[in-house]
Amino acid sequence: MTTPLPKKLVRGSSSGVAIMAVFDLLGRKWNMRIMWELNSDPLSFRGLQERCDGMSPSVLNTRIKQLTEAELVFTTSEGYKLTTLGLSLMNTLNPLRDWAADWEEKISK
Amino acid sequence: MTTPLPKKLVRGSSSGVAIMAVFDLLGRKWNMRIMWELNSDPLSFRGLQERCDGMSPSVLNTRIKQLTEAELVFTTSEGYKLTTLGLSLMNTLNPLRDWAADWEEKISK
DNA sequence: TAGTCCGCTACGAAATAAGTAGCGATATTA
DNA sequence: TAATATCGCTACTTATTTCGTAGCGGACTA
User: Fold this and answer.
1) Which of B2, B47, B103, B105 is the most exposed, fewest CB within 10 Å of its CB?
2) What is the fold, at CATH topology level, of the domain defined by B22-107?
3) Which residues in B lie closer than 8 A to residue A104 (C-beta atoms)?
């Protein structure tokens, strides 16, 4: 039988807890994409849906709720927008664009 | 009936394709976490599993294959390690740690 | 030879995402 | 004012992904 693994491992310190929450949030389909699209423009529900390859409205709805709860997105009369916190996240994620281009180039040989 | 949405929207240019692939890869449960852990140390299969809260070995196995395919991870006699490409990705993702701390602070009020 | 640990696989159950129809509200047009 | 259209969003079913667990075959050890 497989050795039971401890469910939680005591790590070096309390640091590293916050980043795990970020991984939980961003490591879910569509969340990064939605924020990326909102970083360009504020968008309506259906507009966001179109930009995100026609993703399911049911999922979009739960994503918006999550991101709103996380204070990264909020609703206005002109549609959904990033909060200051959301904008700052997209700023830290911005270098990903260049990395991605580099990666694609090297991967495709 | 719901208006059919166009499955693909013509965007401004060819730029932005690579970043979508990155979102696909990183927007999957465990992928960021695995790379984060490997950025600290090279780890064995079971070691990686422990660090990742005892995640299922079946999922871990498919993740390792994906990340290897993406040339972000490779296998050595001492365990799994990040490639140069993988290291550079973690470098661009590094500011996330600080952002996460900031976010947690503001969120918990 | 028997015991232990390893990377990894198989497989059923649970959770998440996709896909589609359509409701109620508001806006627009006839 | 009535018909039409569009909106955000919900309710459902189906498909895909992830989880949890048992355990195989190989390498090492006693």
Assistant:
1) B2
2) Arc Repressor Mutant, subunit A (1.10.10)
3) 17-18, 21
